[in-house]
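Exercise 7.
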Amino acid sequence: MKYNFHKNKLFQSFAKVSKGNFRRSLSFRIHQLFQKLNKYPNDIVIETASVCNLNCTICRSVKADLGRKNRFMSADLFKKIIDDIAPICNTIGVSYCGEPLLNKDIFKMIHYATKRGLSVSMLTNGILLNAEAREGILDSGLNFMAVSMDGATKHTYESIRIGASFETLVENIRLFVKERKNRRLSYPSIDLQMVVTQKNIHEVDAFEKLARDLGVERAYLKSLHIDRSREDVDYVESLEKDYFVNSTSLPSRYITNEQGNLELKDKRLCPQKLQTPVITTDGDVLPCCFDIFGEHVLGNVTNQRFLDSWNSDKYIDFRGDLAMHRKLPMCASCLPSNYKIINKILF
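Solution. The predicted structure, written as tokens, is:
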């Protein structure tokens, strides 16, 4: 499975170069080397939308007021960020606590970033992947798209993804794969992911079959995340009692301790090494994607460069002590040190 994944990535790189994108591919490799030498972020998450069109039962973002001042990032702010980070970063994501396809400028944003030599990924629920969106994405140069599908049947999927239509999602993916093929494009690469819960564990085999039938590049299972960073007893109890799957054969962040409570499998140093910061719709710089409430703002890119925040004493101290050694509440249920165990690749 690992071989197939890397082979797919290699094929994508070759396909892009063969289509005349040598400059873009070379820029990506130079960025990678520059990043390693200077210890800049591995990739940066840019929140293009903080609002969603669904109300999923397991999503923390829709269960709490995140306090975002702006629902959508402006195209001007996005361009400023890209201009700031293009010399030191090679990969960005355009998804965080909302659905990026709700932002009317999302295709222009992605196109601007790819033209600057950045590799761009997007996580979407896929419901808004209509004809206009499919065309916009294929025109934008998006490199990678992950689609969340927490069920392989209408009943299971729609009972978790409240407000979604199973038939709409399946048709959107099918048509996207077809239209990409018609254009003879190898990108964006498409992943289909399912968070494993008590509600859908019986559909793992059906999910894999559906993913293969749809023609996506990869399908995988994800571990359920239970956010305890702020006290919300009802939310936590619901996930622990009704959704958490205690299995050694499926991906899981947690183990059950002697007291019968769930705890992270291991709590050694931060697995991401604080190398994946987030920039919110308001321009706030957050240390990682687990700070969804914005409790640790380390700068703001609307009035300063990203590197001004990254190289500030405040950010350096934060990376060196607090979060790196998991001293914050948000770190307690983040990821095991070996975070690769929380996913199971089906193909």
